[in-house]
Write a structure and sequence with these properties.
Layout lengths: L1 E2 L2 H14 L8 H13 L9 H4 L3 H11 L8 E2 H6 L1 H12 L4 H8 L13 H14 E3 L6 E3 L2 H21 L8 H21 L14
Parallel strand pairs: 1-2
Antiparallel strand pairs: 3-4
Helix pairs in contact: 4-10, 8-9
Length: 213
Amino acid sequence: MVVREPISRAVSSYCHLVRHAHLPALPLNEGLRRCFDAFELRGDPFPEANVLSYGLYGQFLRKWYASYSESRFLILSQKQMLESPGLALKQVASHLEIHPEPLLEALKDGSMKESNIGLYDPAMLRLARLGSLLKTRPIPGTSRRTPSALPSRIPGYALSRVAEIAAGIRGQKRETLTDENRAMMEHLYEADFADVRATVPAEALYWAPRAHA
């Protein structure tokens, strides 16, 4: 399991779901407000409520630990993965009881490149979402999407790629969280932090809410 500071994770999750046409392309703060409304219904409908609930690491880990030994889990942070990928891969190999050499060789020769780059620029998110609408179609009765017919996939992939390149050129312009939304998110994750501190290894816990800082 890889954990990330939960507020930045929630923002990333929201933008990811907009990018791939699972959510409408609303301004960030308006969209997050809708996610809060869905979360407070306690029905946890995917995907709005899960933008927030997936950051409740302590809550989820408590449930897993009730059924499986803690030794079955390896928990790393996104910071560890980015700053020391070689060490992280060695830890993964050790945990899985496999040889680390093939993983480390892939890291050396560049075949393991950074992937799943976030897209935060609101204008480019709308463009990428249009691309996703063209290259995928909804699966009835679910919140998932499946590839469209080939003719519409081609311009869809082109639009998505243009959005990614343009976002990089523009410097990934980002929307800023309102004070109200940030305070609501801080309160939500502060309530879970006692469980997080009890279930996440200290070396993977690189953040703390204000009340625990």
